[in-house]
Amino acid sequence: MKSVHPIKRWLRHAWSHPRHVSGLFPPDSLKHIEHAIAQSERHHAGEIRVVIESGLPTYAIFKGLSPRRRAMHLFGHFNIWDTEHNNGVLIYLLLADHDVEIVADRGIHRQVGEAGWQQICQHMEGMFRSGQFESGVLYGIQAIGEQLAKHFPPEAISRNELSNRVLIL
């Protein structure tokens, strides 16, 4: 994240409201994303979770909380790290900062590495810049799903350890 004066960043986040999320991700888009997660998880033993946040609270901005640190906090808060095979993956969108973060549990992170996740994030951010919000998230799910399928094939007994519902904060 580029260094931005805290007051400028606060203004951007103050004007960002959860209603803006529904403008970019209407109910049908959220259903498509949830369906894509469910379909992806049929092809691997991993878990994908999507969290979209319009903006950070004031205290977080003045503490200098980065989107990466926020994503890591949410990864723990929503127990994405607590999958049986350590293969949970969070896609976190912070709309006010125009940022995408992927946080992966150690089992899958060892296989893909930081460069692999950054490549997916950058592609998603490029799609978002051209206004393709739903398609950008669907691309991320597909790309992450391919990595999970390569390293964590589906199990005989399929179970869904994390909800596929998109969380909007």
TrEMBL record:
Spell out the InterPro entries in the cross-references: TPM_dom
Domain TPM, chain residue ranges per copy: 23-146
Family annotation (Pfam families)? TPM_phosphatase (PF04536)
Its name, as the record gives it, is TPM domain-containing protein
Q: From which source organism is this entry?
A: Methylophilus medardicus
The organism's lineage is: Bacteria, Pseudomonadati, Pseudomonadota, Betaproteobacteria, Nitrosomonadales
